[in-house]
Specification:
Number of strands: 4
Order of helices and strands: HHEEEE
Structural class: alpha+beta
Shape: globular
Number of helices: 2
């Protein structure tokens, strides 16, 4: 893992925009919810990318993936490196945001 210095100035903005998106419906049942689902994935991926860089991972040392899932759910956004796995999803039942993380 190569350490880099990155500014953390826009992290609060990324977190706020991601959580605002996750606060609404994130599924494919309506046009508005489908648009929100696309934003959820775009903003979640941006947040995980920034998180990886701020943790010191060089750009080639991690992968970012989206699994959009089906119509009923949010799908998942995943950050995966040799030693870290972080995933965001929104609960299908209720309004909770789920974050899974583990070391590899």
């Amino acid at each position: 893992m190569t350490r880099h210095q990155y500014s953390t100035d826009n992290i609060p903005r990324l977190v706020r925009s991601f959580l605002a998106t996750a606060g609404g419906p994130v599924n494919g049942y309506s046009e508005a919810a489908a648009c929100n689902k696309a934003l959820f994935h775009r903003r979640g991926k941006a947040l995980l990318h920034r998180m990886a860089l701020d943790l010191g991972y060089s750009p080639g040392a991690f992968a970012l993936r989206n699994n959009f899932g089906g119509i009923a759910g949010s799908g998942e956004i995943t950050l995966h490196s040799d030693d870290l796995y972080v995933q965001f999803a929104k609960s299908t039942f209720g309004s909770s945001m789920d974050m899974l993380y583990r070391t590899c």
